[in-house]
Amino acid sequence: MQIDDKPHFYGRRQGRRLRKAKSALMDSFLPKVKLNPAKPMDFPFVPKKTFLEIGFGDGDHLAGHSAKNKDIAYIGAEVFKNGIANLLSLMTGIKQNDEISDEIKLLPERNDNVRIWDDDIRLLFPLLPDNSLDMVFLLFPDPWPKKRHASRRFVNPDNLKVLARILKPNGILRIATDHMVYKIWTLEQMSKCPDFEWTATCGNDWKHEPADWVETKYQRKAIREGRRPVFLDFVRK
Ligand SMILES: C[S@@+](CC[C@H](N)C(=O)[O-])C[C@H]1O[C@@H](n2cnc3c(N)ncnc32)[C@H](O)[C@@H]1O
User: Fold this and answer.
1) For residue 2, is pLDDT > 50?
2) Which among 53, 120, 132 is positioned nearest to 87, based on CA atoms?
3) How confident is the model at residue 109, as a pLDDT?
4) N or C: which end of the chain has fewer CB within 10 A?
5) Is residue 46 part of a domain?
6) Per the domain annotation, does 7 fall within a domain?
7) How many structural domains does the chain have?
8) 57 lines ligand 1 (CB under 6 A)
9) What DSSP string runs through 114-139?
10) Which atom of ligand 1 lies nearest, measured to the CA of 57?
11) What CATH number did the domain enclosing 56 receive?
12) What residues are paired with 64 via a beta bridge?
């Protein structure tokens, strides 16, 4: 924590300049699906379950999962603007080269089962009630492979304590990684954490995609570059 108690974010907040349509989506559509911090669990229906995805990147998994499960409420957190804009594009079907920025202003509230937190998830953590989530996805988190950067890794005792608080008993924390340092690190951290238990009983349980999986950008990159991702599910005791 810094002096002002705001955690430092080490990743990128913005990449290339957004094209017109994506920029218009950020200005006009994001406010319609943005999470209200005063009522973080507020959805316009009574959800069967509530899931959180931390660092959704380009949003492929969040968009695909939420489209398949309309009775589940999803909170997605991401800091990287270009990623958020891409999720909005997937949610609306509006592509970056589309010349329809005026129409975007008229888009109604849609995708009622997704709310976006466009900032560091650690700023939202204190606002999330105890035992409120059924599942948390942390998919291909930045590995920070150098030893001197280990304190930047998202899987750490402080964040695990919060995740244990906000997950319901028997809730699942799903962590995917293609990085062997991060895999070993995660298993070490989780084995030291009394609140979670790894659900795997054999290699098939973590070497293959779970049944409800949607491929992500970083997963595709890993496979292209010859790395084999692992999928680790931990149950909240
Ligand atoms: C390596 S990328 C993976 C993106 C995506 N999950 C995928 O599999 O393609 C990690 C993402 O996590 C986001 N991220 C890292 N720490 C975060 C935090 N504290 N809150 C919200 N997002 C975070 C980064 O901005 C980045 O987009």
Assistant:
1) no
2) 53
3) 67
4) N
5) yes
6) no
7) 1
8) yes
9) EEEE-S-HHHHGGGSPTT-EEEEEEE
10) 4
11) 3.40.50.150
12) none
Residue 1: inside a domain: no
Q: How far apart are the first and last CA of the chain?
A: 28
CA 199, distance to chain mean position in Å, is 21
Strand partners, 170: none
Asked if residue 217 has pLDDT above 50, the reply is yes
pTM of the full structure: 0.96
Least confident piece of the model among 71-85, 94-108, 175-189: 94-108
102 is known as an active-site residue: no
Q: Give residue 111's pLDDT band: very low, low, confident or very high (50, 70, 90).
A: low
**Ligand 1 pocket, residue 182 CB under 6 Å:** no
CA of 224 to the centre of ligand 1 (A): 19
Cα–ligand 1 centroid distance for 102 (angstroms) = 30
Among 13, 78, 87, 224, say which to mutate for ligand 1: greatest number of ligand atoms within 8 Å of CB: 78
pLDDT, residue 101, reads: 66
Q: Cα of 128 to ligand 1 centre, how many Å?
A: 19
Give helix 81-92 / helix 60-68 axis angle, nearest 10°: 30
15, part of any domain: no
Amino acid 171 reads G
Q: Rounded to whole angstroms, how far apart are CA atoms 83 and 159?
A: 23
